[in-house]
Amino acid sequence: MNSLRQPGKWEKYFWPVLAAGTFLALWYLSVKWSGTKIFPSPPEVGRAAVELVRKGLLFRYVLDSLRRVAVGYGGAAVLGIPIGLLLGWYPEWAFVVNPVIQMLRPISPIAWIPVAIVLFGVGDLAAIYLIFLAAFFPIVVAAINGVRNVPSMYRRAGRNFGLSPMQLITRVVFLAALPQIILGLRIALGVAWLVVVAAEMIAVDSGLGYLVIDSRNSGKRYDLVVAAMFLIGLTGLVLDAGFRRIETFRSVRWGFRNAS
Amino acid sequence: MATEAILTEVAPKLKSSLKTKLRAEGIDMVFTRDSNKIQVLQQIDLEVGEGEFVCLLGPSGCGKSTLLNVLAGFISPTAGQVRIDNEPVCGPDPRRIFVFQERGVFPWLTVEGNISFGLFRLLPEERNQRIARYVKLVGLQGFEKAYPQELSGGMKQRLEVARALAVNPDMLFLDEPFGALDSITRLVMRRELLRIWEAERKTIIFVTHDIDEAVQLADRVVVMSARPARIQGIVDIDIAHPRDISSSRYLKLRDGIFKQIGMAHKV
C-alpha cells in the first residue's frame, strides 16, 4: 500500500463499519462465552432500545437531556464569550480575576453537585447550573486566549480605519479570535454532555443519565443501562459532528489547520 | 567623485513648487527594554510634499519602520513632533492609511468585505460603487467573493492597497509592502503601485531595504544610517516614469546610494 494513494470511496465507509462490526461481534461472543446472566448482549440491548421507543421514553429522554444542555451551555456561551473578550482586551482586569478563574477551573463540575442542590433544590435548575459551570470556564479561557493571540496588525488596521473601541472589539477582535472561540465552544460542548449525564443521575427524573441510574435501581435492567449508554454516546457523536461543520464555514475556515 | 557630487547636490529641502504635506522635526525615539535604553531614532527632520513619493531606505533593523509608525501616529516619539497639514499627529487617522505586508488583510472577510471595511459611514449605494471601482483598479475582478486564503501573495497585497485606497486617504504609509513577494511579482507590483499613484496622486511614504526598489519608485530617497537611525542623505531621483533601469542616470543614482550606505557594489 502506498501512503499517497487516494483511498477509494467505498473504503471511507468500509473500514469504520468493519471496526464497529468487530466490536459488536467481540461483545456478543464475550457475553456468550462467559455465560453471564447480568451483562446484556447486543441483541438484548437492541430489544431494550425498541422497548424504550414503544414506551415513548427514548425521544423524550434524549430531548430532555438536550434541553438541559441547550439552556446551561447556551447561557455559558452567551455570558462566557463577552466576558472572555473583555478580559482578553483589558489584561489588567484579567490579571485581577485570573487567580479565581484558574482555581475554579480544575474543580470537577461533579464536585459542585451538593452546592447546586443547596442553591437550586433537586431538579432541573440544579442540573442546568452544573452544565453552565462546566461549559463556562473553557469558553471564557478560549475567548481570553483568542483575543490575546489576535495579531496586533489587525487591531492597528482597525484603529487606522477610525473604529471606536466597541467597533474594534465586534468587527475585528471578535472575528479574529473566532476560530479559537469555536474550538473552546466545541470542547465545552463535550464537557457539558459529560456533565448532563452525571447531573441527571442525581437531580432529576428524566433524561439519559436518569435512565441509566433508574434502570439499574428499578430491577437491575442492564439491557436498558447499556442502551442508555449507547444513546449517550450516539448523541454526543452527533453533537460533535454538527459542531465540526461550523468549522468549515468560510468566514472562520482560515483559522483551522487542514482547512481547505 | 561623481557619486559624491550627486549626494551633495541634494538638499533635504523640498522643491519650492511643492506644498508641504508632512513635517517631522527633531524626532527622537528611545525604547526601554530590560532597563536598557535603546535609541532607535535620532534627530530626524523630514519634510514631505503633497503628492510626493518618498522612500525611506536603510538596512534591516535600522529603525525605518519605527519612523514610519511614528509618522503614522501609531507610536508617539520620545521627543520631537510630526505635523501633517500643519496639525500635530496624535494618533492614527483614516485620512492616512498604513499598509502592512499582505498579512494585514482580514482573513475572515471576502475581497469585497475587506475593501468595504473602512466604508461603514457611507450609504450602501456609494459603498458598492467604491468597492467596484477599487476591485477594478487593482485588477481583482472575478474575485469579489473570494477569501484571502484563496488568493496569491500578490493578490493579497493588491487587496490591502485597495482597502487602503477605498477610504480615499490623502496619504499612504507602506511598510516593506512587497517584501514577502517573489521577485517577479514584486516588479509587477511596483509598476501597479506607480500606476495607481499616478492615477490617484496620494502622498506616499514607502519603507524598503531594497535600493533598486527605492530608485525605481521614489521621487526622493531618504537614506538612513544603521541604529540609531539618522538621515544620512536625501537623493532626488530626477528620472521621469516609466524609468529605464539600465539608463546611465539610473545606474549613477543607484551606485551613489550604494556608496552612501557604504557597500561596494560587487557581490
Could you characterize the architecture of this molecule?
The complex is a heterodimer of chains A (260) and B (267). Chain A is mainly alpha-helical and 260 residues long. Chain A has one domain: MetI-like (MetI-like fold). Helices cover 78% and strands 0% of the residues of chain A. Chain A contains ten helices and no strands. The two termini of chain A are 25 Å apart. Chain B is α/β, with parallel strands linked by helices and 267 residues long. Chain B contains eight helices and ten strands. In chain B, the strands form two sheets. In chain B, strands 6-7-8-3-9-10 form a six-stranded mixed beta sheet, sandwiched between helices. Chain B has a four-stranded antiparallel beta sheet with strand order 2-1-4-5, with helices on one face. In chain B, helix 4 crosses helix 5.
Topology summary:
The complex is a heterodimer of chains A (260) and B (267).
Chain A: H1 9-34, H2 42-55, H3 58-89, H4 91-104, H5 113-120, H6 124-148, H7 152-160, H8 165-203, H9 208-217, H10 222-246
Chain B: H1 2-8, E1 20-33, E2 36-49, E3 53-57, H2 64-72, E4 79-84, E5 87-88, E6 96-99, H3 111-115, H4 124-137, H5 153-166, E7 171-175, H6 183-200, E8 203-208, H7 211-217, E9 220-224, E10 231-236, H8 248-261
Parallel strand pairs in B: 3-8, 3-9, 6-7, 7-8
Antiparallel strand pairs in B: 1-2, 1-4, 4-5, 9-10
CATH architecture of chain A: Orthogonal Bundle
Q: Largest interface, and how many residues on either side?
A: A-B, 22 and 23 residues
Low confidence ranges of chain B: 1-6
DSSP summary, beta strand count of chain B: 10
Count of helical regions of chain B = 8
User: What portion of residues of chain B is helical?
Assistant: 25-40%
**Dominant shape of chain B:** globular
CATH uppermost class of chain A: Mainly Alpha
Query: What is the string of helix and strand elements of chain A?
Result: HHHHHHHHHH
Adjacency order of strands in the biggest sheet of chain B: 6-7-8-3-9-10
Number of domains of chain A: 1
